[in-house]
Design goal:
globular, TIM Barrel, eight-stranded parallel sheet, 297 residues, 10 strands
Length: 297
């Protein structure tokens, strides 16, 4: 079990406080898009998106990540439309728990923070430094992800001299960029970017060597739920990747990951809370087995 030496393990996110040295945080996914790769638009309507977020909190999620544009290449969505998609969901869910917004637009980040978002999840690795400036002017946390391509563009046949060394160098550079624009390190989380501009073998190596990235002192988020590297490894379709996703999440937890972005909330919560209990970080929910004189099974 790798226990990373976190510089600031206790993180204040919204109205919640997390000690990431002893807690594995679950970030649920709510896609307010008509074309998301996993749910195929089932949470596109406002009511469905809010209901999905409420259900995620009820199932034990620590925070909910709301996205209005999918990561995959495609026609750009006007910023005004993205704001209209995410802000009402943020406003509704921020009353319940911490909300993250998956965006690479500074204007969307600003509107989301004003609506109550506590995290901005930039899967382009601060491609536009203005997003760091928006976060710096708030109390929000910034997730800095590794991704080589410009937003929503293809990066065919990605090459790395050494996948971990290259990712680590990229993240150091982009974290420094965020700091230069005013975001303090205690409000930064890194994401190595499973499958983002990486093929399956590269993502498997990234996962296998994840502990090397856990040494930089910042909490690490992994977003590997139901991704293609799991499907290609196990020959499973997108609705058959839960077991592989849980196995990958558990392995990443043992290698230093501390935040887990997931589709299947209840199953992921159970897996990660079980790890916490095994490590002695949390107490059992109750105890009955072999606790009475007459015995029980």
């Amino acid at each position: 079990m790798v226990e990373p030496r976190l510089e600031s393990p206790v993180r204040r996110i919204g109205d919640s406080s997390f000690d990431l040295s002893r807690h594995l945080a679950v970030m649920a996914i709510v896609n307010r898009t008509p074309d998301s790769f996993y749910d195929h638009g089932t949470t596109f309507s406002l009511d469905a998106a809010v209901a999905s977020g409420v259900a995620a909190f009820d199932a034990g999620a620590d925070l909910v990540d709301v996205g209005g544009v999918k990561f995959a290449p495609g026609e750009p969505l006007p910023v005004e439309d993205e704001i209209e998609r995410v802000v009402p969901v943020v406003r509704a869910l921020a009353r319940i728990g911490p909300v993250s917004v998956d965006t690479f637009h500074a204007e969307v980040a600003r509107a989301a923070i004003e609506a109550g978002a506590a995290v901005i999840n930039d899967t382009t690795g601060v491609h536009d430094p203005a997003i760091a400036e928006v976060v710096a002017d708030s109390e929000a946390t910034l997730v800095v992800a590794h991704s080589l391509a410009a937003p929503r563009t293809q990066h065919p046949l990605p090459h790395y001299d050494d996948v971990i060394d290259d990712i680590a160098a990229f993240l150091r550079e982009r974290v420094a960029l965020a700091e230069e624009h005013g975001v303090p390190r205690e409000r930064i989380i890194i994401d190595p970017g499973h499958d983002l501009n990486k093929n399956t073998r590269q993502t498997l190596e990234l996962t296998r060597r994840l502990a090397e990235l856990a040494e930089n002192g910042l909490p690490m988020l992994v977003a590997l739920s139901n991704k293609d590297f799991i499907g290609e490894t196990l020959a499973r379709g997108r609705d058959q990747r839960l077991t592989g996703s849980l196995a990958a999440a558990v392995f990443c937890a043992t290698q230093g990951a501390r935040v887990f972005r997931v589709h299947n909330v209840r199953e992921s919560v159970d897996a990660l809370r079980m790890i916490e209990a095994i490590l002695g970080w949390r107490e059992p929910a109750y105890e009955l087995h072999n606790t009475r004189p007459e015995g029980n099974d």
